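CORE FACILITY INTAKE
Project code: CF-77B
Contact: R.S. (postdoc)
Sample description: multi-component assembly, two entities in total
Requested service: structural model of the whole complex
Turnaround: standard
Below are the sequence entries exactly as provided by the requester. Do not edit them.
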Amino acid sequence: MIEVEALRKNYGQVVAVDGVTFTAPAGAIFGLLGPNGAGKSTTIHCLSGLQKPTGGTIRILGHDVVADGIASRRQLGVVPQEVALYEDLSAHDNLSYWGAAWGLSGADLRQRVGEVLDRVGLADRARDAVKTLSGGMKRRLNFGCGVVHRPKVLLLDEPTVGVDPQSRVRLLELVREEAAAGACVLYTTHYMEEAESLCHRIGIVDHGRLIALGTLAELRAIIGERDILRLAGRFDPARVSDALRGTEGGATIEVAQADTANLTLVLPEASRRLPVVFAALAKAGAEVRETTLTQPSLESLFIRMTGKELRE
Amino acid sequence: MGVVLWFAIPTFIALALKMAFGGPGGPPPKAHVLVVDEDDSLGSRALVMMLSQGGESSPFRGERVSAEDGERRIQAGEATALVVVPKGFGTAVLQEQPTTLRLTTNPAQRILPQIVETGVGLLPDAAYYAHRLFGGPLRSLSSMVDGSGEPAEADVARVSIEVQRSVRSVRDMLGASSPFALEITGEAKAPVAPQASFAEAFLPSLLFMALFFVASSASGDVWIEKEMGTLRRALQAPRGAGAFFGGKLLAGAVLFAALMTLAGLVARWGFGISLSRLPAAVAWSTATGVVFLLLLTLVQLYAGSPRTAGFLVNLVTLPLLMIGGSFFPFEVMPEWMARIGGWTPNGWALLQLKAILAGTMTFGAFAARLLVLVVLGSALFFLALRRLTGRFAREA
């Protein structure tokens, strides 16, 4: 478990992290979402002991990262944004080196290195120098080096930046596997779709401050975001509007766009209210051939909360 | 690879110097002179004897050979020079008539043939002055030796008296007692300042040059690790920056110790370094190497980029090497420069190494100086560690 309370990090007059507080439980993936420069990496660096916080406290499995740094770091696995490997060494030797750096040795180290090579799909390239591997392979090995010592807490700092789609999918699977095995995973990203598909809880940071925190559903609820229902078929826009207004809670249904072939509705809890909507459309003589229900995205949420787009 | 290269360059220089000048452990190089005596007279035999029996101090090693053997061997490059004494040489010299010595040198050698040329070139002058002093007696002696039968006792006595008169006249002219006894005895007993041997002058300098180059190369590791991203990962390991940096220094110490042990054994073989002084010399060189590594790593850590770091390290390294006695040994420097060089960190350490190799440093003095290195190294370690975990890591 990660417990962060009132974390603050200053570089001279510049405040990089400003009073961030959150808790990330074991067996779940906590996403830290925000644009570049928002303070995500600085938070990770403070968690990993790379930088000393200016204020606040961080506990990793109950160990304070400042007062009990060695014990807290022993529980940590870190997968940095950039590939951090010895290019002249083999995949096997890199895993052995980093495993040993985190305290593994002997038969346990050898066994674990073999397991990780299998997991990241590099068993057949184990003895090849890293410089001969493809970019995707290096990324997977980079991940492997972060988990070779079976960390209980895993910090991933935008591990999929610049990764090809296939390797990205595999990396995300590996992250899910770690959480499923009981690890507490902290995942920073500026990719909305990754956070939406991967994280159980999400914290949104901007300018060093945590501006929103919760599950995806809770975040949507914070801003009252409504679902988007797109319909294709044959419609009479005037009759459809009248019919929808006459349904239960019809005042909350907004017709965003309507013509004879397409209809876009914005309404809360759309999935629960689909039967009512379809009944009203049938009453209005409409014929529905295709339906798409879209829940509000983090992107729109971020825009609502900060007044700006999430930039790369 | 870089470390090997940096160690190999001074080693190559040491071997080249060894080949050119030899070390105190081996005999100085001598010119191997083949002599063909076609005359076989008193004069020619004296010349051959002069070239053949100079002893250890002579720059020549003469060998009497036949004309055919001499020609074959000089063509095969087996000797430095071939001197052919023509028939009638002795008589011509005694009669002060023109004659010629034929000298053939080995073109594959550069310095030794010139020594032979110079030496042989002095012979006409020697012959001229010998004539001025002992021309009469020599002619008499020659006719007696070359003639058949035993010389008459009266003739020997006459020659002896003539020689004695000549010596007396020279002595009176110079206003001294015996010119031979005076010159030779006086020179031999004159106090001579002890000259540094090759091992004393050059070897420690070259070892320190190698040490500095290896430390310079190894100090760039922090930038390599930073650019690979492994530095940040290493700093996040449980033992953190102290263990990482300490491990680097330990690896450096092992490398320095291995290189210096190897160099010491080579020096033992090539230059006659005392085996009993090697452990202390290796320990001192290793400790010095680690301090150099710390110093240059600190310079690297304060640079803004690898390129700037390389420039700064060269800026520190090259002047220190030049004035600190590594490029030019203190023994060949002007006194004022050597004095300044002795105050540089590497110059000071080099002087201690020389004292260790010369056997003039006591154990107490050695321990005290080692303590100075430990204190200096500790201070540099904490400064470097502070920088490594501070801004350098943050920018990684």
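Facility notes:
- The interface with chain A takes residues 228-230, 232-240, 393-394 of chain B (CB under 8 Å).
- The first strand of chain B starts at residue 31 and ends at 37.
Invoice: internal transfer
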